[in-house]
Amino acid sequence: MKFRETTPKRQNITKEVSDYHEHKINLQKDFRGHCGYCNDRDWPRREFFEIDHFVPRKYDKSRENDYTNLVYSCCVCNRKKSSKWPSEDGKIQFLDEKGFVDPAVEEYDKHMERREDGTIYGKTKKGQYMEEALEFSLRPLKEVWQCMQLMEK
């Protein structure tokens, strides 16, 4: 089953800002109110959604306010990912098939999938790395997804 209906697409925002939090409204629109990583919805819990730095600030401070490096994220995914970056070099995304795929690119869906019951799993080694790093199997994502499906009906 498809992981998500549509791939988020970031706007081409190049305006410099002094604080990346200024981008939250635009990120929410671009990610259609869904966490970039687990696809959980922000409704009715918007206050639990944050901004993740795809390449952690620890490994590339120059991208702290760069819109192309920001991901609309639920607070759990944001904390689980934290500053994890296997290569420890902001310019090297993967190390031995470990690393994160930017959720705002179509490639993300090649690595992640959702089973019919709502369980999220990694289809590839990169996907399995993300599934483990974000602890999808330890979280009630399946149950939340099932509830949202019922609400839509």
Attribute tags:
single chain, 153 residues, alpha+beta, two-stranded antiparallel sheet, two-stranded antiparallel ribbon, 5 helices, 25% helix, globular
Largest sheet: 2 strands, antiparallel
The coarse silhouette is globular
Helix content: 25-40%
Average pLDDT works out at 93
Uncertain spans, ≥5 residues at pLDDT below 50?
Answer: none
Number of helices: 5
- Order of strands across the widest beta sheet? 1-2
What would your notes on this structure say?
- This protein has 153 residues and is an alpha+beta fold.
- The protein is 25% helix and 13% strand.
- It has five helices and six strands.
- The chain has helices spanning 24-30, 75-81, 108-111, 125-133, 141-152; strands at 49-53, 70-74, 94-95, 98-99, 112-114, 120-122.
- The strands form three sheets. It has a two-stranded antiparallel sheet. The chain has a two-stranded antiparallel sheet with strand order 3-4. Strands 5-6 form a two-stranded antiparallel ribbon.
- A hairpin with a 5-residue loop joins strand 5 and strand 6.
- The longest helix has 12 residues, at 141-152.
